């Protein structure tokens, strides 16, 4: 399951400075949006990876493949249950630093999954990842929208969530192949390392925004809905 968390979108108030008459927009922030898309790619790959490694993880942990499949469900349920409250609790934190922190927590979650000595330990690691993943999705849509004028919001959000589509098409299959070839634990360790690289890329290349509050508008929600790929089904 993916894209389960509510994505907060920015205010339509003209006082926010986006899309004012006579205002000359700056260059389109390709680098920043690609950095966000890369973060989305890694986050969704992390969420769905157990589905491709069911037999390997089942044998190593001594549990059924169905129980391993439930790791994705635990992750998704945690997203649904915690994303709104975590978004509220972190509403005053700078968004830029929060995205970096979330990627680091996701990396830690993958390390915990990789070193898990038993199933219960792994469930705990996945729950931690689900909390970070939900908070990430509560922030990322609004962040992308605040990098561009109002008329470019749909384009910006489409570029950002395209990382999720690429994760389904390339990320999960490649990580699964690596897991079969090198071992599933090493696959999660490698993904954790990429998460840390992604955190550095976001910290270095994602422009900072100063917006904290948000208010949905019909046009912006429609732009997001049109851009987002369909959710993947949980086992």
UniProtKB/TrEMBL annotation:
Residues 1-14 have a biased composition (Polar residues). The chain crosses the membrane at residues 28-46, 66-86, 98-121, 127-145, 157-178, 184-206. Signal peptide: none annotated. Residues 32-235 form the Major facilitator superfamily (MFS) profile domain. GO terms for molecular function: transmembrane transporter activity. Pfam families: MFS_1 (PF07690). This is MFS transporter.
């Amino acid at each position: 399951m993916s894209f389960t968390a509510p994505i907060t979108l920015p205010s339509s108030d003209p006082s926010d400075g986006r899309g004012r008459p006579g205002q000359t927009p700056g260059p389109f922030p390709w680098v920043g949006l690609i950095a966000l898309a890369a973060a989305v790619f890694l986050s969704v790959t992390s969420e769905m990876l157990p589905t491709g490694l069911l037999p390997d993880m089942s044998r190593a942990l001594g549990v059924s493949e169905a129980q391993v499949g439930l790791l994705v469900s635990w992750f998704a349920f945690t997203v649904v249950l915690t994303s709104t409250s975590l978004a509220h609790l972190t509403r005053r934190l700078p968004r830029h630093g929060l995205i970096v922190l979330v990627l680091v927590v996701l990396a830690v979650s993958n390390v915990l999954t990789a070193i898990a000595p038993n199933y219960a330990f792994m469930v705990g690691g996945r729950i931690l990842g689900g909390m970070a993943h939900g908070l990430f999705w509560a922030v990322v849509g609004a962040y992308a929208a605040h990098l561009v004028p109002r008329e470019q919001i749909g384009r910006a959000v489409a570029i950002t969530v395209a990382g999720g589509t690429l994760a389904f098409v390339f990320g999960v299959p490649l990580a699964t192949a690596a897991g079969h070839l090198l071992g599933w634990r090493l696959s999660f360790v490698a993904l954790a390392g990429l998460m840390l690289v992604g955190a550095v890329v976001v910290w270095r290349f994602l422009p900072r925004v100063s917006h904290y509050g948000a208010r949905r508008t019909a046009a912006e929600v429609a732009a997001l809905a049109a851009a987002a790929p369909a959710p993947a089904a949980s086992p």
